[in-house]
Design brief:
The radius of gyration is 22 Å and the shape is globular. By secondary structure, it is α/β, with parallel strands linked by helices. The chain has a 9-stranded mixed β-sheet, with helices on both faces. A 3-stranded antiparallel β-sheet has the order 10-11-12. Strands 13-15-14 form a 3-stranded antiparallel β-sheet. The chain has 2 domains: 2-259, Aldolase class I (TIM Barrel), CATH 3.20.20.70; 352-404, no CATH class. The mean pLDDT is 93. The protein has helices at residues 29-45, 47-50, 70-83, 103-111, 126-131, 138-150, 169-182, 199-209, 218-234, 253-259, 286-293, 311-319, 322-325, 334-345, 354-361, 365-378, 393-397, 399-404, and strands at 2-10, 53-62, 85-96, 116-122, 156-162, 186-191, 238-241, 244-246, 264-267, 272-275, 278-282, 326-331, 352-353, 382-385, 388-391. Bound molecules: iron/sulfur cluster. Residues 1-241 form the Radical SAM core domain.
Length: 408
């Protein structure tokens, strides 16, 4: 049986963080109820697509999935299990934020077969947490982390961030220390990106206009980046992807599936899918998603994707609402797939297999990418090990440049 991954998007959060440009929002209890019903409907309608597949990873992400009442997560898991075959050893992750967990919820997750918890900490420094508008402090995180351990979770990820407003190399090191002292199995470490149209962007810009910066300077940011790799390595974590570190055997299988271009179906608002070499995304409008997936009436000209829907088509669409919520459909060409194979595969420290490339695409690697690979090897950004090709440490530092070279 071919393997399939499932991603479920829960777009609700207690409050929008100041740096957040993800598809997340506050939601009242009625909206949450309606959303979960719509989501379950989407899962049921996707049964045919999941036929013949073995689902070996499920990732319930957000937003903050743990903000939902536990029973909703139970209903979602039931819908998945009733409509596809889930591997008994599947990795099943739920993203949680401190302040939204209690021991009953965690025990319930465990009973549902969820076996991996991902907790968003970002920083162990309360001032830094406040500066980015998080709802919790470090103590609240500690409480959630301990509850997760007490509930029996033996695979926990902690998200941290560097380059935060007011962060120094010392305070960042302190975060690394406090987190590694807890001994989580997995740590994701990202550098803050200040996105436009966020409150943080406005603050950064206002400070710059006034002649100062609230962010660490470039050198400090770089130092934090190097410190991440060094500190985590010294603490027994293996870097297996540009921003992801784990104890041996605890790499996130779901994310590895993305980088290896495994088929995945995304359910929920804005969720993306890769299915039989076609990429597509769900609509990002909450009320539209709920309305269509709840069998609401469609009006002529209702137009989520810039396409006109005519009255005659509406009956077909109501038969299969998935055709309305899914758009940005991109049927991947061989060229697209080769490019993706390279720039997603090179995110992983193990790199890509030349044999696998040739087997998948029926082309000699040398013919397609020989020149690019030689150039990057001569620049010290890429290295070859047996039949594998991977980024060097220097290549990881300039990974965007190195990967862009593989665009055909
Ligand atoms: S918890 Fe995550 S998804 Fe929610 S607002 Fe904050 S950064 Fe965004």
């Amino acid at each position: 049986m071919d393997k399939l991954e499932i991603y479920v998007h829960i777009p609700f959060c207690a409050k929008k963080c100041d740096y957040c440009d993800f598809l997340s929002m506050r939601g009242d209890s009625v909206t949450k109820r309606e959303y979960v019903s719509a989501l379950i409907n989407e899962i049921k309608l996707s049964k045919d697509r999941m036929e013949g597949y073995l689902v070996d990873t499920i990732f319930i992400g957000g937003g903050t999935p743990s903000i939902l009442e536990g029973k909703y997560i139970g209903e979602i898991m039931d819908a998945i299990r009733q409509n596809c075959v889930v591997d008994e050893n599947a990795e099943i992750t739920i993203e949680c934020n401190p302040g939204t967990l209690d021991k009953y919820k965690l025990k319930y997750y465990k009973d549902l077969g969820i076996n991996r918890i991902s907790i968003g900490l970002q920083s162990a420094n309360d001032d830094e947490l406040m500066a980015i508008g998080r709802i919790h402090n470090f103590d609240k995180f500690l409480e959630s982390y301990k509850l997760a351990r007490e509930a029996g979770f033996s695979n926990i990820n902690v998200d941290i961030m560097s380059a935060l407003p007011g962060q120094s190399i010392e305070s960042y090191r302190e975060t690394l220390k406090k987190v590694t002292d807890l001994n989580p199995e997995h740590i994701s470490a990202y550098s803050l990106i200040v996105e436009e149209e966020t409150p943080l962007y406005d603050r950064v810009e206002a400070a710059e206009n006034a002649g100062y910066s609230i962010l660490p300077d470039e050198d400090t940011e770089r130092e934090m980046y190097y410190e991440t790799g060094k500190f985590l390595k010294d603490s027994g974590y293996m870097r297996y992807e540009i921003s992801n570190y784990s104890k041996v055997g605890y790499e996130c299988r779901h994310n590895i599936g993305y980088w290896k271009r495994k088929d995945y179906l995304g359910f929920g608002l804005g969720a993306a899918s890769l299915y039989k070499n076609t990429r597509y995304s769900n609509i990002a409008g909450l009320s539209q998603y709920i309305s269509v997936m709840s069998g609401g009436n469609l009006e002529e000209n209702e137009n989520f994707w810039g396409e006109t829907i005519y009255q005659d088509d509406i009956w077909d669409i109501q038969e299969d609402p998935l055709t309305v919520i899914q758009g940005k459909i991109q049927k991947l060409s061989n060229k697209d797939m080769m490019e993706e194979f390279m720039f997603l595969g090179l995110r992983m420290m193990e790199g890509i297999s030349v044999d696998e490339f040739e087997e998948k695409f029926g082309r000699k690697f040398e013919t397609v990418y020989g020149n690019v690979a030689d150039k990057l090897i001569s620049q010290g950004l890429l290295k070859k090990n047996d039949n594998r090709i991977m980024l060097t440490d220097r290549g990881i530092d300039v990974s965007n440049y190195a990967m862009s070279e593989f665009l055909l």
